[in-house]
Amino acid sequence: MDIKVRAKELVSQMSLEEKVSQMLYNAAAVPRLGIPSYNWWNEALHGVARAGVATMFPQAIALAATFDEKLVQAVADVVSTEGRAKFNVQQEEGDHDIYKGITFWTPNINIFRDPRWGRGHETYGEDPYLTSRMGFAFIRGLQGPNREQLKTAACAKHFAVHSGPENERHRFNAIVDKYDLWNTYLAAFEVAVKEAGVEIVMGAYNRTLDEPCCGSKLLLHDILRDKWGFDGHVVSDCWAIKDFHENHRVTASPIESVALAITNGCDINCGTLFPLAFDAVKKGLLTEEQIDTAVTRLFTTRMRLGLLGAPANEAYNAIPYEEVDSLKHRAFNLDVARRTLVLLKNDGVLPFKAGSLKTIGVIGPNADNRMALEGNYQGTASQHITVLEGIREIAEKQGIRVLFSEGCDMLRDRRDGLSQADDRLAEARAVAKRSDALLVVLGVDSSIEGEESDQFSESLGGDRPYLELPTSQEKLLKNVVEAARGKPVIVINISGSTVSLGWAQDNVNGIMQAFYPGAMGGRAIAEALFGEFSPSGKLPLTCYKSTADIPDFTDYNMANRTYRYYKGEPLYPFGYGLSYSTFRLSDLKAEKATVSVSVENTGPMPAWETVQVYVSSPGAKEIRSLCGIGNLFLNAGEKTTLAIKLNKNAFSRYDENGTMREIKGKHSLSVGFTQPDALSIRLYGQAPLNVELPV
Question: What's the predicted TM-score (pTM) here?
């Protein structure tokens, strides 16, 4: 029997009260029908979260820096394997608690349109195409190859036009023109629904174009279900329904809020208000048929997971607990962390040469900070390797002495409350004077940037109002450079968003952006510094010089935002990242669906590199847009031909009514290791190849 028919038949046997009990995230048991309780709320942003030990991969923004769809799908496949393994034993133990199910409310495919947004590190960056491909990959990795027999269920969130400010999200109205709505904010969600077959969509807290997202007719009914044909279920963000009457003021009471949400297609409430659906039916605000529709969708998902008596995928049920945090998964995690590191500057001092150092100084508040490895929505790693620990692992094997100083507090002007200001500065200067090379590990962690409810720092509800390093860290860096007296100084920046490192760019020898690199991150960073592999990550967002260069945080129009529209010169551009090796392109051939190009590693060591294809279209609002990505690993001297599939919409744009229209005329394609702008070419040292393609 078809799963949807089975689900509908089961719903038909339930009372209204029983049906409504299924529309909360902590769905009740219905013993008389053999329906066990189920908690829909689970997280797996970069590993199974909040339910004990699991492999903790680099944060989502770091995964985006790989630009590698296959790698990200492999990460999600490991996550779903561990999710199933944990679920299997939890079911055996009768544990149906929160974070114990196999419906994962991830990935976050919102566009990271503004670097101040604290939750941006949960996303795949600022570009709709990159976000679409990373989101597609993660969804496929979580769900497996068969939509009707899901390994786990993925959730595309937060639908839609959501990216801060965090402290206004419960009342904010995101006003955006229809061109930006379709071509920027909805693009990744459309791919998630129509190509990846995502099972769940979560609404956002805010209003979009005057409608609360979790009760929006435009978003949930007209676009998601009618236009895109979504047949999974919709969940509200947590306690978002009460915002309808308390903050957005679009309804007058809780029962009206519940009716609005369900009427427009929200099926399950992460919160506590949906029991009022029973009263809403009795008062005529909802029909029982609307409740039936919602619960049928929910049961369809559970049955696709092999639950509620539906045919189970025995291979998934047989995944043993021993898969969790296995040696194989830990080794893979290290491989992934290596791929996420972005080398922003290198004057030739990196990698460190064997025998060239007797002492290395490791300084900074993130040098030995486990939280800086994690990001948010994280699980519990069985082992963390900080940067300090990673450096010690390698350096001490080579007989190199490692000196360490925290140097400063991450935010405050002193590390200990009873001390005077700059209480670790003298120690840091002493380390700098006594070391042959200095590694300064700076940035922030998820106590400073993240979700509104998770923060305990002095920042604004998880957002960062400035892009510069905190004053304490800027002062530390300047003192280390001064005390080093010309010896090499390398900056490692750990953060989920960009940090403006203008002074460092002008005054240190090397800079690496590590984002939040996961439990194995410190080892990966150390290996990169000592040349055990070449960094290959690319920036998935633009690093601006200052917030003065971008529009107001609350302005959701894309004008002068992200590389696609920004007309100034940033500090570091989207798509940029250096290598220890060098590469050369030749023999470019372009067609409407693909490009092919020869790639040769002309440098001294094997390395990964990413070939990026950008399109500039006649009359388009965007300066250029990423439309193709190719990843390859080449040994020194190796040459190969790479074929890159282009975005099927590369030469088209949505009009303001949401209709895709091809742009006639000559389109300019750029194929290279960076964007074709002057800054990217200057920083990377090589211009892309260009070709015109008539359409």
Answer: 0.98
Q: Are 525 and 596 in contact (CB under 8 A)?
A: no
Q: Which two tokens stand for residue 337?
A: 């962390």
Annotated active-site residue in 43, 69, 180, 237: 237
State which amino acid sits at residue 516. Y
Active site residue 449: yes
Residue 293 zone, left/alpha/beta (φ > 0; ψ -120 to 50; rest)? alpha
Q: Cβ–Cβ contacts within 10 Å for residue 420, how many?
A: 8
DSSP H or E segment with residue 344: strand 342-346
DSSP 3-state of 113: coil
Give the domain ranges of the chain: 3-46+58-316, 342-535, 583-694
Q: Is the dihedral of CA 60, 63, 68, 69 positive or negative?
A: negative
Contact 77, 141 (CB under 8 A): yes
- The pLDDT value recorded for residue 454 is 63
Checking if the pLDDT of 633 tops 90, the result is: yes
Report whether 488 contacts 529 (CB < 8 A): no
Fold of the 342-535 domain: Rossmann fold (3.40.50)
Locus of tokens 């790989």: 66
What class has domain 583-694?
mainly beta
Residue 689 zone, left/alpha/beta (φ > 0; ψ -120 to 50; rest): beta
Residue from 449, 452, 527, 677 carrying the catalytic annotation? 449
β-strands 207-208, 173-174: how paired? parallel
Q: Summarize pLDDT for 245-256 with one digit per residue, the tens.
A: 999 999 999 999
| Distance, first Cα to last Cα, the chain | 47
Instruction: Give which of 324, 321, 312, 323 is closest to 89, Cα–Cα.
Output: 321
Give the pLDDT mean for 285-298: 98
Please say whether the structural domain 3-46+58-316 has been given the CATH code 3.30.310.50: no
Q: What is the 3-state secondary structure (H, E, C) of 552-621?
A: CCCCCCCCCCHHHHCCCCCCECCCCCECCCCEEEEEEEECCCEEEEEEEECCCCCEEEEEEEEEECCCCC
Write down the residue that tokens 């592999």 correspond to.
533
